[in-house]
Amino acid sequence: MSQPAFDADFPPRAPWFGGDLQTMAAVLSPPRFSLDDLEVEALQIATLDGSGDVLTGERLCQPGSGKSAGLERPTVVLLHGMMGDLDRGYMRVLAGAFARRGHPVVRMNLRGAGSSRPLCQRNYHAGFTTDLEAIAASLAARADTGKLAWIGISLGGNMLLKAASETTFIEAADHHRIASVSAPIDLVATANRFSRRRNFIYSIYMVRKIRRLGPMQPGRTPAEIAHLRRIETIGELDKHFTAPDHGYGSANEYYLANSAQQFLPDARIPCLVVSAADDPWIDIDPYRAVPWAKNPRLSPVLTRTGGHVGFHGRGQRDPMYVGWSQAFFG
């Protein structure tokens, strides 16, 4: 097992003490991070399943860097989490941090998210890795792109860790490395943890997003839209929509088929895997159960604190996963 020289016991930055405050920091004190100084190219990428759905994204780079930047340094591809999009705070922070180091950065909306919503009949899910293959192949076909380095946040991280063992994804491009932050690698455990009474505030937050965004998906019947507006839990969304929409007989079948934990031992791309013991959404025990030593491509960073996509460390402007990813990518 490769052991990165990262501080897994970093001291948290005041006032973000404990997993809940680390998690809520992005909402209570959203990052003010401008990307206005970067060149931006809008992207549209066709999916591979014959649906006609189109993924949308942006390629950002330093002004005047030209085509050579993507050949000298890996292009960093960013994937958001559940109910997110390319403009979430963590996506902006990562995009700015890597672009200013000279990397071209591609930040993507997953299928049905952000500006891809009106262009898609289907939605992404935790294991929808064929869309990652489409992104990889599209970028690899560009003359200004060499290696690809990937960062997946939460659900996007689970997708990447699953894809890291899949031949079609691996062969679609020249992959450098992968970083995953706060991924729900055991979806059953995550569903059970998220439904706990102590997480009711988070559940309400996510359910309100579902009620607001779900009915905007093209192709929904009036009955489905009415049901989406009555959704009470993430589990109900997966049972009545995510699983059947993608051919699974139940939410549990969907969870078991797409949890990245089972695929990690077979990863064929170097992976940095970051998670925190005090993450209120993601159970750390599935991470501890992974046989890390059996695959030298895996570099786990399991921290004492950090919450869910928090990792706000003392003396650091950016979340710790930014620096860890930069060091891992080299």
Briefly say what this structure is.
With 330 residues, the chain is an alpha/beta fold. The protein has two domains: 19-186 and 267-329, Rossmann fold, CATH 3.40.50; 188-258, no CATH class.
Describe the overall structure.
The chain is an alpha/beta fold and about 325 residues long. It folds into two domains: about 20-185 and about 265-330, Rossmann fold, CATH 3.40.50; about 190-260, no CATH class. Helices cover about 35% and strands about 15% of the residues. It contains 13 helices and eight strands. The protein has helices at about 20-30, 70, 90-100, 130-140, 155-165, 165-170, 185-195, 200-215, 220-230, 235-245, 250-260, 285-290, 320-330; strands at about 40-45, 55-60, 75-80, 105-110, 150-155, 175-180, 270-275, 300-305. The protein has an eight-stranded mixed β-sheet, with helices on both faces. Helix 10 (about 235-245) packs across helix 11. It is globular and about 50 Å long.
